[in-house]
Amino acid sequence: MKLIVLSGLSGAGKSVALHMLEDLGYYCIDNIPVSLLEPLIDDMRDDKFQTLTAVGIDSRSRVGDTGTFGERIGRFRNRGIEVETLFLQADPEIIIKRYSETRRRHPLSDRQTPLAEAIERERTLLHPIAEQADMVIDTSRKTVHELRDLIRDRVHGREGLLSLLFQSFGFKHGIPTDADFVFDIRCLPNPHWQPDLRAMTGKDQAVVDYLNADPLAEEMYQDIRTYLERWLPRFESENRSYMTVAIGCTGGQHRSVYFVERLATDFARHQRRVLIRHTELP
User: Fold this and answer.
1) Which residues fall within 8 angstroms of residue 246, CB to CB, at 6 or more apart?
2) pTM (2 d.p.)
3) What end-to-end distance do the CA atoms of the chain give, in Å?
4) Residue 141: strand, helix, or coil
5) Considering only Cβ atoms within 10 Å of each terminal Cβ, which end of the chain, N or C, has fewer?
6) Parallel, antiparallel, or unpaired: how do β-strands 273-278 and 163-170 relate?
7) How far apart are CA 137 and CA 140, in angstroms?
8) Mean pLDDT throughout 178-197?
9) Nearest to 101 by CA among 8, 11, 9, 7
10) Which residues of 192-226 are buried (b: 16+ CB within 10 A; e: fewer)?
11) CB atoms within 10 A of CB 16
C-alpha cells in the first residue's frame, strides 16, 4: 500500500495538489483528522483495489493530534506501508492576496481573529507536520499548472530513475525554498552589462556564445557538473526520487538560465528524467 499525506497552509494549493493525485489514480480523502488516520488505513489495507491512497490534513485537526503526527507515520512505516508526506506553504502576503481574490474565509479566522493572525496560528499548529515532511513545496511563485506538474513528476519519479529539476532564479527575487541544492553564480561576468545582450536571455545564442567564451564560466560549470555527478548517485541509492537543483544569478535572466539549459542537456544524456524551470522568465 502507498500512502501520500498532503498537508500545508490554507491557500497554499492543497486542493490543486489533491486533485492532481486523484487524476493519477489515488483514492483521495480531504480534511481528515490526524486521529482518524490509523483507523482509515486499517480499513483501506483490506481493500486490494485501493492500493494508492492520499489524504489531506489541514489546520482543523486538534493541536494534540498534530503533535503526534510523526509517531503515527512511524507506525505506518513499521507495518510496511510506503508513506510520503508533502507539505505546501507560501509567503503570508501571497496567502492574504489569494484569499482577497477568492473572498473565501480562512478556517481559523473569525470576527476576533484577522487573516494575518490566523495564518500564523495555522503555521504554528501545522509545524509538527512540516517538520516530518519528505518534501516542503513553496507555492508563493508557482502557478496552478506548475504545482500540478510538480506533484505529477514527484509521484511518477518513484517508478524510475531519480527525477531532476533544474531551476534558474534571481537572487534579487529570493531563493527557492524547496530547492535541494542552491548554486550561486553571481561571481561570473554578467551579460546584463553588455548593451547588445541586456534584452536577451540565457537561451539566446549570443548570450550562450558570450558565456561559452569565458574561462571562469566554464570552470564554474564543470565544477557544478562534477559535484552533481559525484553525489547524485548517493542520493539515488537512498531512494530519493526527486531533487531540485537551483542555479541563481542576480536577475535570473542570463547566467542562471544558460547554466540550467546546459546542465539539463548534459544530464539528460545519462538517461535521467530531467525537467527545467526558469523562475524569472515569462
Assistant:
1) 167, 168, 169, 175, 176, 179, 181, 182, 183
2) 0.62
3) 40
4) coil
5) C
6) parallel
7) 9
8) 96
9) 11
10) beeeebeebbbebeebbebbeeeeebeebbeebee
11) 17
What would the grid cell of residue 242 be?
Answer: 526527486
**For residues 74 and 5, what is the distance between their CA atoms, to the nearest angstrom?**
13
Instruction: Give tens-digit pLDDT for 99-143.
Output: 988 888 888 888 888 999 999 999 998 998 999 898 999 999 888
How many C-beta atoms lie closer than 10 Å to residue 270's C-beta?
Answer: 11
Cα 89 to Cα 147, 182, 244, 247, distances in angstroms: 12, 19, 17, 21
Between helix 115-125 and helix 92-102 the angle, nearest 10°, is: 120
Which residues have a Cβ under 8 Å from the Cβ of 251 and sit 6 or more positions away? 170, 172, 192, 280
The residue type found at 29 is: I
Residue with cell 544558460: 258
| Amino acid identity for residue 80 in this structure | G
Give the tens place of pLDDT for each residue, 58-82. Answer: 877 665 677 788 888 999 888 888 8
Residue matched to cell numbers 537512498:
238
d(CA 13, CA 163): 22
Integer Cα distance of 262 and 203 in angstroms: 10
Which pLDDT value is given to residue 156? 67
Cα separation, 69 vs 129, whole angstroms: 6
Residue 160: exposure state from Cβ atoms within 10 A (0-12, 13-18, ≥19):
exposed
